[in-house]
Specification:
heterodimer, A: four-stranded antiparallel sheet, B: about 400 residues, about 20% strand, globular
Chain lengths: ~140, ~400
């Protein structure tokens, strides 16, 4: 997909993976990737490896943005409502928020259903596409 | 039961909530004057001012303590200014209480006020790519109601809650608020009207999400000895204040983050964040949920009030809808929740809200909550949480 990341450092558009961190001392994961000290209060390490996170997870919950979010969100004109999901990545023990790809309505989603991370367009401007991670059902519900 | 850590609430005051569009200082000064009059003391008797800050009103808002002190007339009092988003008021109360318990002050004014913009709360200005609050709006379009919608939908899918259950919270709180002269919305509503309002963050409708309001609230907090010297009847005291942070890992997605902590390698804490906020107050006061007469909780959405029932220990997980349907949480029931009308009737005036919860509790414990009185109330709890992990809970009793 052509374009550049809307904000660098959260995912790899080529592999369509979120990029998190894993603490070199205690092994705990973080997304976004950690800087500073490990979140584990008994660890205090500041050494992390950048790691791709699981591409698949299950829906923790979901909702809709039925009204246009305010700046700094860059909305299409006219605004098109979208869904947002919180997806649980089991191996990393993380729940991550992301927009759901266009064409999937809230009625198509269910807590526990399997989702995958994909690269998609957040918005386009005179410089081209700005990319972000989104979630897509592995099997779109009928 | 007596507690060594009690302070008295000698006076309470508010500026009515609304969308007045005036300077926030005006609301804070009005609330402070009302609290001073209620306490029957002069401004010059106050020896500590604890301001709850607002970040939306420029430089004077960030230094609310001194701003209000100046507006009332500088008289050399010690001062503090606290910002903890929705928990700012609790931080100000905690500051004042600690000063009094330490013997460093005897009479404290706690005051917070806000003037809010129309529509969704948005992050403060500038392009701040290292700030999760900026990033969640920019990358995800995730507003505050996004998070409320996630919690609400999860209740539905886990516990079978219905839209009618959520709307019934609004119906209850609107009925309470209709009797509260300081509430912004004073009209009763029906379930049908709530569900007919526009969808904002599925499954939540416009009338299920708290508005942003202008308003102010203030307390006069004193040592118990000072209150007794003033012959205050009945003596209403703050017995415990919780300002705890979460314990890692917090596995509930919280504003403004776009991911939780990891539960992969570190064991989960005994309690999640919201239950831990009130657990700290119960422990400090030496009581439990069975001792409560009423609760004021942060109903940012209808469904979130139901989460609080469980977090406060009023019922077990997944049982909040049944508790609501039983009528227990309405005025006249076993454990009324948000007899003030809650945020549903007030809307949110961020730095004032945690203080307003205590104002309502004090009025209830004194038997002065006309039209919405919880009969015989002796123990009240307040609960809310501020952005990034600021717990806020206050235990008030007579």
């Amino acid at each position: 997909m052509d374009g550049v990341q809307a904000v660098e450092g959260f995912f790899d558009p080529e592999t369509q993976s979120l990029i998190g961190s894993k603490c070199q001392r205690c092994g705990t994961y973080a997304f976004p990737a950690k800087s500073g000290l490990c979140g584990n209060p008994r660890c205090m390490s500041d050494q992390f490896d950048l790691v791709p996170l699981s591409r698949r997870g299950t829906v923790w919950s979901y909702t809709s943005a039925s009204y246009q979010p305010p700046h700094p969100y860059v909305a299409a004109d006219p605004f098109v409502p979208f869904s947002i999901a919180a997806v649980e990545l089991e191996a990393e023990g993380l729940v991550v928020l992301g927009q759901v790809v266009a064409g999937v309505a809230n009625a198509d989603l269910k807590v526990g259903m399997e989702m995958e991370v994909v690269t998609d367009v957040l918005y386009s401007d005179e410089d081209g596409n700005k990319l972000v991670w989104k979630f897509r059902p592995v099997e779109v519900a009928k | 039961m007596t507690s060594a850590k009690r302070v008295a609430v000698l006076g309470v005051g508010m500026h009515p909530w609304g969308k007045w569009g005036r300077n926030f200082v005006e609301y804070g000064v009005a609330a402070a004057q009302a609290a001073l009059a209620d306490a029957g003391i002069a401004w010059t008797d106050v020896d500590y001012v604890a301001g709850a800050d607002t970040i939306r009103n420029g430089y004077p808002g960030f230094i609310a303590g001194a701003t209000f002190a100046q507006a009332l007339g500088f008289q050399g009092t010690r001062v503090s200014s606290s910002y903890a988003a929705c928990a700012s008021g609790a931080q100000a109360i905690a500051n004042a209480r600690a000063q009094i318990l330490a013997g460093l002050a005897e009479v404290a004014l706690v005051v917070g006020a806000d003037t809010t913009p129309k529509g969704f709360f948005a992050p403060v200005g500038g392009e701040r790519r290292d700030d999760p609050d900026w990033l969640r709006f920019h990358l995800l379009g995730a507003t505050n109601p996004t998070y409320f919608g996630l919690y609400a939908r999860r209740r539905m899918d886990r516990f079978g809650s219905t839209s009618e259950d959520f709307a019934a919270v609004k119906v209850k709180n609107a009925r309470h608020g209709a009797a509260n002269p300081n509430a912004r919305y004073r009209k009763e509503v029906t379930i049908e009207e709530v569900l007919a309002s526009p969808m904002v963050a599925d499954p939540l409708h416009l009338q299920e999400i708290c508005a942003t309001s202008d308003g102010g609230a203030a307390l006069i907090i004193t040592s118990v000895e000072y209150a007794k010297r003033h012959g205050l009847q009945p003596l209403v005291t703050i017995d415990a204040v919780s300002t705890v942070t979460p314990v890692y890992p917090n596995t509930v997605i919280e504003m403004p983050n776009f991911a939780t902590d990891s539960s992969a390698t570190v064991a989960l804490p005994e309690r999640g964040f919201r239950p831990s906020i009130t657990a700290a107050v119960y422990e400090e006061a030496g009581i439990g949920p069975e001792d409560l007469s009423m609760a004021e909780v942060y109903d940012l959405s209808t469904a979130l009030e139901l989460d609080w029932y469980e977090d406060l220990g009023l019922c077990g997980e997944g049982e909040a809808e049944a508790l609501l349907r039983s009528g227990a949480t309405a005025v006249g029931g076993r454990i009324p929740v948000n007899p003030s009308g809650g945020l549903a009737s007030f809307g949110e005036a961020i730095p004032a809200q945690a203080i307003a919860q205590v104002v309502e509790s004090v009025l209830q414990l004194r038997g002065q909550a006309t039209g919405r009185q919880v009969e015989g109330a002796t123990v009240a709890i307040t609960a809310n949480q501020g952005l990034f992990g600021h717990g806020s809970s206050v235990l008030i009793r007579r």
